[in-house]
Amino acid sequence: PLHIIVDAKGKRIHMVLIDDGSALNVCPLKTASCLGISIEDFVLTDQHVRAYDNSRRKVLGTVTLELTIGPMIMNVEFQFLNIGSCFNMLLG
């Protein structure tokens, strides 16, 4: 797997997984909390996703974050899930 480091909301985020097989950008609830993002900040959705273990998970909401990756700055919409993970963010 390819892990990179990104900056978001003035914080450096390690263990950001790049997965070109994923259709979504995923951020675990734990990472959202560390970035100062609360559930009240989410744009609510009734979306569900199929996780890597084939289980169905409810998306708590979405937020668009400005990410700095090396010299690039881009706005990325993340789906927030209450999951345990080995990554802090997943870029699909």
What does this structure look like?
With 92 residues, this protein is mainly beta. 20% of the residues are buried. The strands form 2 sheets. It has a 6-stranded mixed beta sheet with strand order 3-7-6-1-2-8. The chain is built from 1 helix and 8 strands. A hairpin with a 2-residue loop joins β1 (2-8) and β2 (11-18). The longest helix is centred in the middle third of the chain and has 6 residues, at 29-34.
Throw out a few tags for this protein.
92 residues, 6-stranded mixed β-sheet, single chain, 1 helix, 50% strand, mainly beta, two-stranded antiparallel sheet, 8 strands
Overall morphology: globular
Helix run count? 1
Strand order of the largest sheet: 3-7-6-1-2-8
- Residue fraction in strands: over 45%
Structural class: mainly beta
Extended strand count: 8
Distance between the termini: 12 Å
The profile of the biggest β sheet is: 6 strands, mixed
What is the radius of gyration? 12 Å
Q: Brief description of this entry?
A:
The protein has one helix spanning about 30-35; strands at about 1-10, 10-20, 25-30, 50, 55-60, 60-70, 70-80, 90.
Give the helix/strand layout.
Blueprint: E1 2-8, E2 11-18, E3 26-28, H1 29-34, E4 48-50, E5 56-58, E6 61-69, E7 72-81, E8 89-91
Parallel strand pairs: 2-8, 3-7
Antiparallel strand pairs: 1-2, 1-6, 4-5, 6-7
